[in-house]
Amino acid sequence: MPYLDVIKKQEKQTNSVQMPNVTGMELKEAKKILNNIGLQYEIYSNNEESSIENPVILDQLPKQGITVQEETKVVLYTD
């Protein structure tokens, strides 16, 4: 509504990225890949008292090949 001197805020531009396959990778490597393409992540472990320093990714959501927006939160399931 420019006639009321109201300036519309520009929405933050986000890019689409294709979800990579990080299943089978060590957590450290998966985090690096996701960070490089602008995705966030949340980690869930099957073992509450995990003593594994760099666990392997068993599954991920969203799955490989899905197109998502940058800053999407990816769920990583580890051993």
The first-level CATH class name: Alpha Beta
How many domains make up the 3D coordinates?
Answer: 1
Measured on Cα atoms, how large is the radius of gyration?
18 Å
**Mean pLDDT across residues:** 86
What structural class should be given to the helix and strand makeup? alpha+beta
Number of helices: 1
Strand order of the biggest β-sheet:
2-5-3
Number of strands: 5
Order of helices and strands: EHEEEE
Major sheet characteristics: 3 strands, mixed
Strand content: 25-35%
What is the 3D shape?
elongated
Give the N-terminus to C-terminus distance in angstroms: 54 Å
The low-confidence parts are: none
Portion in helices: 10-25%
What's the CATH topology label?
A: Trypsin Inhibitor V, Chain A
- Specify the CATH architecture: 2-Layer Sandwich
Q: How would you describe this protein?
A:
- The protein has 79 residues and is of the alpha+beta class.
- It has a single domain (15-78), classed as Trypsin Inhibitor V, Chain A, CATH 3.30.10.20.
- It is built from one helix and five strands, in the order E-H-E-E-E-E.
- The strands form two sheets. The protein has a three-stranded mixed sheet with strand order 2-5-3, covered by helices on one side.
- The chain is elongated.
